[in-house]
Design a protein that fits this description.
CATH class of the largest domain: Alpha Beta
CATH superfamily of the largest domain: Class I glutamine amidotransferase (GATase) domain
Helix content: 25-40%
Shape: globular
Number of domains: 2
Number of strands: 11
Distance between the termini: 27 Å
Strand content: 15-25%
CATH architecture of the largest domain: 3-Layer(aba) Sandwich
Number of helices: 10
Structural class: alpha/beta
Length: 315
């Protein structure tokens, strides 16, 4: 897909090396179709890695996409240079008067804190509230999904006895359009210390798209189709969990090796990627869905969202 991003973004050279099709601003300006405008709120410490992972997934579509990155201002970013943040990231004040076709809210390594104890919680709440009127569709990932479920629906998170770590299967429920083409059972990376209290899910407001008998729901969507919650990390690279495991080992943590990840569960035999195809398919389906329902004029999104909330349409 012709993805339009800043030419000197570090992710560009990596993606071009993978033959991901990118176009420059001059060529994009002469295309007749309107690009989709996506905003990525990147809460992960290593922002460049997350940029590459997400851009890799949203690039697999015939649609042209303009991508903006958003940073939290009420938090000190220690793992990404100030130069990179100033050059490639916007602040909420710069976007709050605009509309976007899609928003992606990433995970964050703060899940063992109460939501209200996270130093940027109020800013995140403001962004999530803004997204309900100014964005056609929102993806929430891992902790971002837990935060969204808590804020919008009052779904509490629960701590696990040990880190949920590895590749876990899940069963598709029904035939929702976002899971079109999915196998009945598919896999996704998980790396978290908390989950959600499934007993608090209101079936009148949320639909479970997939679940696992041991770890519960993994994909959920609001009944109006506006908010998608992904409790795992489809965006993860093949090596991401291995890097996390080696990091935890170096820190002296008692993290067990990620399950269903290494060949025959042996780190010496390499990694078996079980989730790549469904990761691309999920994001392809989401982009197609956004393209189908978003208005041509971005400034019509707030009115569309007001009608959506008034009607209370179900998916």
């Amino acid at each position: 897909m012709p993805i339009k991003i800043a030419e000197d973004l570090p992710a560009v050279s990596v993606l071009l090396g993978e033959d991901v099709f990118a176009i420059d601003n001059e060529r994009a300006a002469h295309q007749d179709i309107r690009p989709l405008r996506l905003l990525i709120l990147n809460l992960m410490p290593n922002k460049i890695d997350t940029e590459i992972q997400l851009l890799r997934l949203i690039s697999q579509s015939p649609l042209q996409i303009d991508v903006d990155f958003l940073k939290i201002t009420t938090h000190e970013h220690k793992n990404t240079s100030v130069t990179h943040l100033k050059k490639f990231y916007l602040e909420f004040e710069q976007v709050k008067d605009h509309c976007y076709d899609g928003l992606i809210i990433t995970g964050a390594p703060v899940e063992q804190l109460a939501f209200e104890e996270v130093d940027y919680w109020q800013e995140l709440v403001d962004i999530m509230d803004w997204s309900q009127n100014n964005v056609t569709s929102v993806i929430h990932i891992c902790w971002g999904a837990q935060a969204g479920l808590y804020h919008h629906y009052g779904v509490a998170k629960v701590p696990y006895k040990e880190k949920l770590f590895g590749i876990f299967s899940q069963t598709k429920l029904g035939n929702h359009r976002l899971c079109r083409g999915f196998d009945d059972i598919f896999w996704a990376p998980q790396s978290r210390y908390t989950g959600i209290d499934a007993a608090m899910i209101d079936p009148e407001r949320l639909q479970i798209l997939s679940q696992d008998p041991d770890i519960g729901p993994n994909l959920l969507i609001s009944k109006d189709g506006h908010d998608l919650f992904i409790l795992g990390h489809f965006e993860y690279d093949t090596e991401t969990l291995d890097k996390e495991y080696q990091r935890d080992q170096a820190k002296g943590l008692e993290t067990k090796a990620p399950v269903h990840y290494y060949v025959q569960d042996d780190p010496q035999q390499g990694i078996c990627n079980r989730w790549r195809a469904h990761a691309h398919l999920l994001y392809h389906n989401w982009l197609n869905d956004v393209y189908q329902i978003t208005p041509f004029a971005l400034d019509e999104i707030p009115q569309m969202q007001k009608m959506r909330m008034k009607k209370g349409d179900s998916v």
